[in-house]
Amino acid sequence: MNTPGPRPLHVRFFALLREQAGCSATEIASAAATPVALYAELQQRHAGLVFPAHLLRVSINERYADMTAPLAAGDRVVFIPPVAGG
């Protein structure tokens, strides 16, 4: 199977994730095939990202997607934690 090489991805973090990552956005070159794999890679780069991936929502190119959706070069990926209110 041919594994894609690193490609540019635009990543944004919302709410608590922004605080944990220490930034609101980053651009990286990644070979991650899915948002869940990308998040795991980002957790290695940003030690503060401790929120569990299975609780996150993701948007790819301004559309909600599954954490197992395929990623392509230039995708705009937004990770969104659950929102609590009261």
Q: Could you walk me through the main structural features you see in this protein, from its secondary elements to its overall organization?
A:
The protein has a five-stranded mixed sheet. A hairpin with a 2-residue loop joins strand 3 (57-60) and strand 4 (63-65). It has helices at 16-21, 35-45, and strands at residues 7-13, 25-30, 57-60, 63-65, 76-80. The protein has a single domain, classed as Beta-grasp domain (Ubiquitin-like (UB roll)). It contains two helices and five strands, in the order E-H-E-H-E-E-E. It is an alpha+beta fold. The chain is 20% helix and 29% strand.
Main beta sheet: strand number and arrangement?
5 strands, mixed
**Total of DSSP H or I helical runs spanning 4+ residues:** 2
Q: Give me the CATH fold name.
A: Ubiquitin-like (UB roll)
Strand order of the largest sheet: 2-1-5-3-4
CATH architecture: Roll
Question: Helix proportion of residues, in percent?
Answer: 10-25%
* CA gyration radius, whole angstroms: 12 Å
User: Which structural class is indicated by helix and strand composition?
Assistant: alpha+beta
CATH superfamily: Beta-grasp domain
Low-confidence stretches: none
Looking at the structure, what is the overall shape? globular
User: N-to-C SSE series?
Assistant: EHEHEEE
Classified by CATH, the class is Alpha Beta
Q: What fraction strand? A: 25-35%
The end-to-end distance, rounded to whole angstroms, is: 49 Å
Number of β-strand runs: 5
Number of domains: 1
Mean pLDDT figure: 91
